[in-house]
Amino acid sequence: MRSSRVRSIVLTSGAVALSMFLMTCSTVQEQIGTITGGKVTSSDVETATKVTKAVRNSFADITEEEEYYIGRAVSAMILSRYPVYKNEALTQYVNYVGNATAIHSDRPETYAGYHFLILDTEEVNAMAAPGGFIFITKGLLKRCRNEEMLGCILAHEVGHVTAKHGLQSIKKSRLIDAFTIIGQEAVKRYGPEKLAKLTDIFEEVLGDIAEKLIERGYDRKYEYEADKLSVQIANHTGYDVNGLLDFLDTMVDDTSTESGKGWFKTHPSAKDRMGRAEKEISSLASAPSEKTERTDRFQNAMKSLN
Amino acid sequence: MNKSSRLKGILIGVAILFVAVLLAENLIVKVQTTSVRKEPKFYSPAVATLVAGETITQISAQAGWFKVKTSKGVEGWIHSSAVQSKSFTLAAIDKSLKTQATAEEVALAGKGFNKQVEEEYKSRNKELSFAEVDRMLRIIVKTEELRKFLENGKLGEFGGPR
C-alpha cells in the first residue's frame, strides 16, 4: 500500500514536470507562430530552441553594458575632435527636450540613460553614439527656429540609438572574434594576452562605427529609418512633426561655407529625405501643432547662444 | 500523521514550489540602475531602486511596462527596456559543449567589453577625452523636472486632445 502511494506521488510529480515541459514547448510554439504568422512544424521548434540557446553571433547579442562601453569610447573620439560648448542652461534645456523624446521612444532606458551635449562648432551636425550619448552642434542649434524642430532632430538621433544603427555598423567578423574570446574566458578579469586581443578587436569595432558616424555617415537606409522613427517619436511626444520638414527645408538650398562638412557629408540629400518624411507624416492619424508655450521657452533658452 | 502522508505532503509542496518557480516570469535588470515606479510612467515616484543583475518577478504587463515584485516584496512598475527575461536553457546543463557564453551570462558576469577593456584602450589612446564623457554622464534630468517640462510645454499626456 505504502509503496503504491509513493509510486503515485512520484508519478504525479513526473506528470507535473512533464506538463511543465510540454507547456514550455507549446509556449515556444505559440510565440513562434505569432511571429511567423503561420503553422509551425516540430522541426521549426527544434531550430528555434537551438537558436534561443545559441551563443552570441550578431550585433543584437551585444549586451547593454558592452554597448555602453562602446558608446563611451565613440563619444571620447567625438569629444577629442570637437570642443564642448560650455553653456549649462542651454545644455540642460537640450537635455529636457532630448529626454522628453527618449521616454516616448521604444527604448526609453539604456544602460546609463540618454545624455545630450552641445559641440562648440559652426559645423551643422548631430550624432548619436551607441547607448544614448547624443551630440548636437552649435551650428545646427542655430538652424532651429522652435522647440518642434529641435525635438524632431533629437528624436531622429534617439531613433539611431533605439534601432542600434551604430552597433549595426560593426563588421560581423569582429563580433564573432570578440564573442569567442569573451566566451572562452571563464574568469571575470582577463589575462594580459586575452585582454590585448580583446582590446585590439574593441579598437576595430570603434573604427567601424567612427568611420560611419563621423566620417562617411550611416547607410542611407538607416537615415531614412531614423527619420521615420523621428516622426513617430516626436508625434508621440507631442511635437509638431512638421518640425522635421522645416529643418530639412533649411538644409535644401544651403550654400554656407559649412556645406560639405558634418551633416551635409554624412547624410543623404535633404530633398530626398523630405519626400519620404512627408509620406510618413501623411500616414499619421493625428498630429499636434506648435505651441506658444514651447516656442517662448525655446527662444528664451536660445538667447544665450552665441 | 503517519510517515508516508508526511512524505506525500512534502513532495506535493516541492512540486507546487517547482511549478510556481517555473510559472513566475523572472526578469533581470539589464541597465546600470533603474527605478520601480508607483505607476507605469517615467515621472511617477520611485518605490524601489534596482541595479544591473537583480532579479524581479513579473506580475502583469501593460503597454511596454511590467508590474513587478522585487526580492524585498515591493510592488511597482518597471519599463520593459530596462529588463530582460531570464532564459531557461537546457544548454546550461551541459556547459562542456559550449565554447561561448550567452549574452545573459556575459551581462551577469560583467564580462565582454567592460571597464578593464576600456582601461587598456585608454592606455593605448591617451589623447581621447574620457573625462568629458564622464562629465556628460553627470548631466541628469530629474524625474520631477521632466514632468514639469512636459506639463509646461503641453507635451505627452499633458498635450490634451489633438
List its traits.
heterodimer, A: 306 residues, mainly alpha, 2 domains, three-stranded mixed β-sheet, 14 helices, 3 strands, 66% helix, globular, B: 162 residues, alpha+beta, SH3 type barrels, five-stranded antiparallel β-sheet, two-stranded antiparallel sheet, 5 helices, 7 strands, 35% helix
Q: What does this entry look like structurally?
A:
The complex is a heterodimer of chains A (306) and B (162). Chain A is 66% helix and 5% strand. Chain A is mainly alpha-helical. Chain A has a three-stranded mixed β-sheet. The longest helix of chain A has 35 residues. About 11% of the residues of chain A have low confidence. Chain B is 35% helix and 23% strand. Chain B is of the alpha+beta class. The termini of chain B are far apart. In chain B, strand 2 and strand 3 form a beta hairpin. Chain B has two domains: 87 residues, SH3 Domains (SH3 type barrels, Roll); 50 residues, no CATH class. Chain B has five helices and seven strands, in the order H-E-E-E-E-E-E-E-H-H-H-H. Classes of the chains: A mainly alpha (306), B alpha+beta (162).
Please identify, by name, the CATH architecture of the largest domain in chain B: Roll
Q: Estimate the helix proportion of chain A, in percent.
A: 55-70%
- Number of domain units of chain A: 2
How does the overall form of chain B come out from the CA principal axes? flat
Major sheet characteristics of chain A: 3 strands, mixed
Molecular shape of chain A? globular
Query: How much helix, percentage-wise, in residues of chain B?
Result: 25-40%
Number of helices, where a helix is a run of at least 4 consecutive DSSP H or I residues of chain B? 5
Q: What's the domain count of chain B? A: 2
For the biggest β-sheet of chain B, the strand order reads 6-5-4-1-7
How big is the Rg of chain B?
A: 22 Å
Query: Assembly state here?
Result: heterodimer
Span between termini of chain A: 92 Å
Calculate Rg of chain A over CA atoms.
25 Å
Structural class of chain B: alpha+beta
**Category by helix and strand content of chain A:** mainly alpha
> Which regions of chain B have little confidence, pLDDT < 50, spanning 5+ residues?
89-97
DSSP strand count of chain A:
3
Q: Please provide the ordered H/E string of secondary-structure elements of chain A.
A: HHHHEEEHHHHHHHHHH
